[in-house]
Design brief:
Elements: H1 3-20, H2 23-26, E1 37-45, H3 58-64, E2 77-86, E3 91-98
Parallel strand pairs: 1-2
Antiparallel strand pairs: 1-3
Helix pairs in contact: 1-3
Length: 101
């Protein structure tokens, strides 16, 4: 992808993720998470369904920085698990789990 297309795609993902975050959750005292978390990202897709290792999550995870997680480095995000499921529409669901200490 040309760098300009890549930048536009990244901006589109950022705006989509940010507009999907519930205001009352993201703006409460518990966010961004201060403890390490694990993320599970489920991509529900209309056929043809991609293999889980072909789903690119970087832009989605980057969009969470500063809102859901402080940063996406190993201090704050200990794992990211991609899941792919067949569906009648394309939807991405991000679940956040506190890491056991």
């Amino acid at each position: 992808m040309h760098w300009n297309e890549r930048r536009q795609h990244r901006n589109n993902v950022f705006m989509l993720v940010r507009s999907s975050l519930p205001f009352e959750v993201v703006n409460c005292d518990n966010w961004p998470a201060t403890e390490p978390v694990a993320l599970r990202v489920t991509a529900y897709m209309k056929p043809p369904v991609l293999d889980a290792d072909n789903v690119t999550l970087k832009d989605v995870i980057d969009s969470l920085k500063g809102w859901v997680v402080r940063d996406d480095d190993a201090r704050f995000v200990t794992s990211v698990t991609p899941l792919v499921k067949r569906n009648t529409e394309n939807v991405v669901v991000v679940e956040v789990f506190k890491e056991a200490v």
